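Hey, I was hoping to borrow your eyes for a little while. I've been puzzling over a protein and I'd love to understand its fold better. The fold is given in discrete form, as structure tokens running alongside the sequence. I'd be grateful if you could look everything over and explain what you see. No rush at all, and the record is pasted right below.
>
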Amino acid sequence: MERAKATGRPLPWKDLRVAVVGLGRLGTACALALADSRGLALVAIARRGDSLSRGLPRDLPRGVAVCETGTLQDVDAALVCVPAEEMLDAVRQVLSRGIPVVECAQRHGPAFREHLAAIDREALRQRCAAVVGAGWDPGALPLLRGWLGLLVPKGRTEARLRASASLHHTLAAREVSGVRDALCTERRAADGRLQRYVYVELEPGADRQQVDAALRADPLFLDEETQVLPIPSVAALEEEGQGVVLERWGAAGASGHQRLLLEARCDPVALAAQVMLAAARSLRQLRPGAHTLLDLPPARLFGPRSQAEREAGSRPR
């Protein structure tokens, strides 16, 4: 394997030697998370041949090797982070080298079951373990919904997507000439004043100062201090920070009128990376074949038993 240039901190010795396949948003998040994890060591990054010469994130440990997927070796597990349409081929290529894998392609329903069965056949053929759908959704989010159903067996669950940090679309800003799309949020300043932040995606050729003046003069924004912040893409901003609200109503045994509410404001990519790392910790104890998070004992996902016990035993404040 071609060695990467030495950057960042020295690589400490750890138990599980891990490779990241693909270095997009998810692959980068996994690589950076591995650099700060316990019990896992990032030792290789697999990329396409035309991407081998590209630089790596500065915070990665020293000595991380860079290679093509087909030459990956000397690793105990691989986190496959390629686009969904490339996932099955990449997983098969890694499994063919006798390397257990973790992946989190965004597939649901029948498509997920077909994907799982295909990876299961290949994993059994290569006598390797694979964890499929180990991300945020699929992955952790369905597990959270399952726990709500376990606690309140008779009832219904509603899931609502929310933008992170109270970001919401604003029709008033969208109607301003030169604005393609906009998101708005409100926050308190240190002195208690309410401030409004309007993130605007401008139309090509739009005048930034005219858009700024028009928004500040809008009656909706006159009552509060308003900051207008042009951004390249509203869609990209929404993807960086999303949220979800899970709410379940129903009965638990003889006790009716139960209501559970769980709200998350998060970066789904960062959470998916953490789930993939947790799944990688379980690979050594798994039989050959494809598994989902439902097949894994929670203690194996937490890592060291003492850490899991501390998390489970902590009391709310």
Q: What stands out?
A: The first strand starts at residue 2 and ends at 3. The longest helix spans residues 109-126.
